[in-house]
Design brief:
The protein has three helices and 15 strands. The protein has about 325 residues and is an alpha+beta fold. Strands 3, 4, 5, 8, 11, 14 and 15 form a seven-stranded mixed β-sheet that branches. Strands 1, 2, 6, 7, 12 and 13 form a six-stranded mixed β-sheet that branches. The longest helix has 19 residues, at about 295-315. The radius of gyration is 26 Å and the shape is globular.
Length: about 325
Amino acid sequence: MDLRTHPRKARLAAIAWIAAAALYPAGMALGAPTITFQGKAMPNNILSTYKTENCASATTNHILSDVCSDTIFLSNQLATDTTTFNFISPSTFNGPLPTNQTFNTAFTTWAGKSGWKVQNGGTLDVTIDIRQFDPVLRTYVGGLTLDANLSLNAGYKPQGTTAAPNLNQLVWTQALYINYQPGEPPKNLRDKPANTLDDADFSNAIPCRAVPKGSPAVVDTNHGLPAYCYPIYPYQGNSRNQPGFYDEPKGLWEIPASFRGISLLSTVDMDAKVLTVYNDGIAYGFDLALPEPALWLPLLVLSAFLAYRRAVSGSRTI
């Protein structure tokens, strides 16, 4: 029907078009990919600090402080491969502060001359629901627990391709900006944080099993089972071994540890050496902190020592 012959219908159509343009700006998919918290919208970032008593050195067993703090944070925005690691609380990082590092810079560092490539597959119409986001407060380590569900939205039409993967073809690949490396004992990277992928090698989750072949590969959840090898995150699925994401990063109080993670939905083709990442991800992190010694404490000790020396000198028989 030619709307030019019906002025009223033409006006209504124009109003509808303007409304749609406001709701869905240019380049935005008509679906509603989103990140939620316990089934509800996340209007704000989460930023919380928790305190614990008598955190200790894993090296000496000595108490480091009678009060220690763990600041955890979670972005309310879906992360992408260009999200920088300086989100929410960059100034609290222990070591050189994150600036313009991204998932892509982490991938470049990780890939080196291996021939692996990363590409962006766009945005998938999915919902990531954060079911748990809590601190980890233990004697020698602190950190956080993150547990998330993943579901395909009603409008999503899986086709088993990179453009529209099936649920069992979606995997998580995580990039890090971190001042320690997991291990026994953990490696202190405070002076030179790592910006790399969180794979089985970096996480010391060896031995690991190879990611299946396929274009893209079908990858089963493996919570509680042997880790997957590179390039994907070693453990796929949430704590209930369902589609989703689970991580419990933790580091030593004595460093003190800092962690930034950007975990993206991905598909992988092992033969072609291609990782496809999507604009559907989670950005989160933590920083441990010990109270700074009071500036007056050394002076007080020195003053007490000098007073003692004067008292001793004054009591001498000359």
